[in-house]
Specification:
CATH architecture of the largest domain: 3-Layer(aba) Sandwich
Number of strands: 14
Strand order of the largest sheet: 3-2-1-4-5-6-7
Structural class: alpha/beta
Largest sheet: 7 strands, parallel
Radius of gyration: 22 Å
Distance between the termini: 32 Å
Strand content: 15-25%
Shape: globular
Number of domains: 2
Amino acid sequence: MARTLYTLLFFLLTPLIWLRLVWRARNQPDYLRHVGERFGRYSVAPAGPLIWVHAVSVGETRAAQPLIEALQRQWPTHRILLTGMTPTGRDAGAQVYGDRVIQAYLPYDLPFAVNRFFRHFSPGFGVLMETEIWPNVLASAKRHRVPVFLANARLSARSARGYQRIAALACPAFANLAGVAAQTDGDAQRLRALGASPVDVCGNLKFDVTPPPALLDLGHQWRSTLSGRPVWLAASTREGEEQLVVDSWRADGDHAALLVIVPRHPQRFDEVATLLTQRGLRVGRRSTGLPAADIDVWLGDSMGEMVAYYAVADLSFIGGSLLPLGGQNLIEAAACGCPVLIGPHTFNFKQATEDAIAAGAALRVADAADLGQRAKRLLADVSSREEMRAAARSFAAAHRGATQRTVALIAASMDRAGR
């Protein structure tokens, strides 16, 4: 009954879904491409057996890389079908995997659409990245005898409470999973409480993502053009944070450091550029070249170059954490050996953040004023930064291995099922 009511509500909201696509297409026209796929209409089905991996957007697409490569090694006769929900995620998939995978949008969670999806592709099994739980998708997968696993699974206490409020809908969906590879013990406990089983703790796949050497080299090339100027990076900033970061950078009156701001969402690039210019700052943009010697802020308005930004930085602040937005993942920064400052709001990445702080790879700041003061001290203290760099690399190395454990979990389950 709960899923029936959910489906009815989804049908009623379909006109708003169309309006949302059109609205988002104002800034990203690609939202109006491949629209048929969002309702389960695809071109000719690929030949041969498939493994389906769903990564909702850019972060999940990149995090899936070691898992996809391991799945290809484990099942070499299968092709990977990579689904997502956003054009930026699809672009990231093309950039990371090229033609090694088949890409498509996962349809909206409407029964007729998801049934078309499974009839068209008929994957051997599926892997959902992180917390992508769709009741009709999972119910349809079970009807079509497609085992679905949840990989790199994380579930904050806040999200768990939200699911508990709709337990009649959520718990059957979690129970339809064939297995779960959780990031931490806490995630595993919360997932079991919602009906998921079996649940194993496998760690975080993002620790297994190796920074591409070409991007590290690109960052070092940028560094060579700065004539020794220190670089303070604000990575994956969210709406409302850029102003706080700029104010904290300006507070001490010493602007010797180049401030690099890379917004989390590409549709905000122009908005952030305008904000910075209106505040009287001399702004350069990655899209127009390397930073000139007289600019104050370099806007990272490019996609797929985050590793290069970490490589050029002396110090990074991870966005989404100054405001109560839950933070962003600091693992990529640690893998690049970049010292990290993180704000007070990290509930979406609680365990990784606490572990990084305990390892000496990151420092937590209380607010924007504290951010500016800590950044100033660290930029003046080479030895402390080098200690944090070494700690960051050690922290990243110590947590690797989630990919191997996740693939072993999936393979064991498929063997037990005789598939």
